[in-house]
From TrEMBL:
Higher taxonomy: Bacteria, Candidatus Woeseibacteriota
Domain of life per record: Bacteria
Domain PAS: 14-59
Stored Pfam families: PAS_4, PAS_9
Protein name (database record): PAS domain-containing protein
SUPFAM superfamilies in the record: PYP-like sensor domain (PAS domain)
Length: 298
């Protein structure tokens, strides 16, 4: 027969481990019960949202954290935690979905998050949300969009852009690249100017990026996209592209978002961590039940 004292010690150790993991997370973490009330918050969530634990625990999630999408409050039934509790599906929100939270002080900030169900015995008993303030990523995106609108067609402006800037003519031949483009592409201006995209990057015509570029070139319609690029050395990078028709052909602005994509992938990976935390919490619950039974049988 198992030793009750040993089981109790294991429970304490698992509880300490669980609390250490949650407290040390850089992202905010909230747990919501079936009654839609907050049951747990970590220090990062307190810092991001501007409240203390005692102000949140036991209160309705939708009242403590007000969420917005495209400037409008998100209806209760559409809140991610509510959707997860009602469907059992994991929900991931990225920067492109324009979700915002409002802090206690009234500041609005863009949020990215992963919300997953907590299950016990196959039944949903709550939802856990891991989220982060995505303000830095939004500011980077806004900077690119602002510069696209401010284009004047003068080369000296493009030379000083922090973002990559390139112009291809109607034959998809490079006629201008700035230093940022050269750095992003791990190449040189001499290797690009005067050559076509097809000459420099065989197979590019079969990529989704070229489809968008061709549409911009032929239809004279601006295009935006996120593109994963494979370099000749085997490495890969992610770039946010803005394609604008200009008299010479197409102007392409590029922003390196490799780190941002890594962050998004990390958020997805957090889902796996949440599953492990879920199992740990359930295992602790089961051991507690076992301990209580053993103590009663004495």
């Amino acid at each position: 027969m198992d030793n009750p004292e040993l089981i109790e010690q294991q429970l304490r150790e698992e509880k300490d481990l669980l609390e250490a993991i949650i407290s040390s997370m850089g992202e905010g973490l909230l747990v919501v019960g079936l009654d839609y009330k907050i049951t747990m918050v970590n220090p990062a969530a307190e810092k991001i949202l501007g409240f203390v634990r005692t102000e949140a625990v036991g209160q309705p999630w939708a009242e403590v954290v007000v969420a917005y999408k495209d400037g409008e409050p998100i209806p209760f039934a559409n809140r991610t935690s509510i959707v997860v509790l009602n469907t059992g599906m994991t929900v991931i929100t990225s920067l492109t979905e324009n979700h915002y939270y409002k802090t206690k002080a009234g500041r609005y900030f863009p949020v990215t998050s992963v919300t997953a169900p907590i299950k016990s015995g196959g039944k949903i008993i709550g939802a856990v949300k891991v989220f982060r303030d995505a303000t830095p990523e939004e500011e980077s995106q806004a900077k690119v969009e602002s510069k696209v609108k401010a284009l004047t067609g003068y080369k000296n402006i493009f030379d000083n852009l922090m973002e990559g800037c390139q112009i291809v003519d109607f034959n998809y031949r490079y006629i201008y690249v700035n230093d940022a483009t050269v750095k992003q592409g791990k190449t040189s201006a001499e290797e690009l100017i005067g050559r076509t995209m097809m000459e420099k990057f065989p197979g590019i015509v079969d990529t989704p990026m070229f489809v968008r570029l061709k549409k911009c070139m032929e239809k004279r319609v601006a295009q935006n996209m996120e593109n994963e690029f494979s370099f000749p050395d085997g490495s890969k990078g992610w770039f946010e592209l803005r394609m604008e028709p200009v008299p010479e052909g197409v102007l392409i602005l590029s922003l390196d978002i490799t780190n941002r994509k890594k962050t998004e992938n990390d958020l997805k990976a957090k889902n796996e961590d949440l599953e492990r935390l879920n199992k740990l919490m359930i295992g602790r619950e089961l051991k507690m039940i076992e301990l209580k039974k053993k103590l009663k049988s004495k």
